[in-house]
Amino acid sequence: MLKKVEEFILSCDVARLSTVTPAGLPHSIPICFALSGLDIIYTPIDSKPKSSSKKTLIRINNIINNDEVVVLFDRYSEDWNELGYVMVKGKASIVQNHYENLDAVTLLEGKYRQYREENYLPPDPTVIKVKIYDYTSWGNF
What are the CB-based long-range contacts (under 8 Å, 24+) for 115-123? Predict the structure, then answer.
């Protein structure tokens, strides 16, 4: 990945994760994320309220059924010369390795004060890993 693309991604506070439902329908949500190296994105299932805690989250179910995902990083500005985005394609999975999970949590806590100070991450949270295999960029990224 180009340094300029990496810098753009790191400048973003949030991104959008798009998965595909078992019926083939798109499903997109905003996410908090951390970038590891140039080819891994981590996003947690944190403690912010969800519409239902009694069932598997849609994004998790979608990833289990189809690991192809898109993560979109974008910037909007009233000055349209500043518009830009980076769209990455990747293979998603749920982190199973305890040590990788700890590393992901460390990265996420380093990026978001709320994860460090306000207990938005449960102990041993579920973390989604996206292994990037392609990207597209546009505009002033």
Answer: 115/32, 115/44, 115/46, 119/47, 120/46, 120/47, 120/48, 121/44, 121/46, 121/47, 122/46, 122/47
Q: How high is the pLDDT of residue 2?
A: 84
**What are the start-end ranges of the E strands in 1-141?**
15-20, 26-31, 34-36, 40-44, 68-75, 84-94, 127-139
C-alpha closest to that of 126 among 50, 60, 61, 39: 60
How, if at all, do strands 40-44 and 84-94 pair? unpaired
The topology under which CATH files domain 3-139 is Pnp Oxidase; Chain A (2.30.110)
Residue 79 pLDDT > 90, yes or no? Answer: yes
- What predicted TM-score, i.e. pTM, was given to this entire model? 0.91
Token match 């192809």: residue? 68
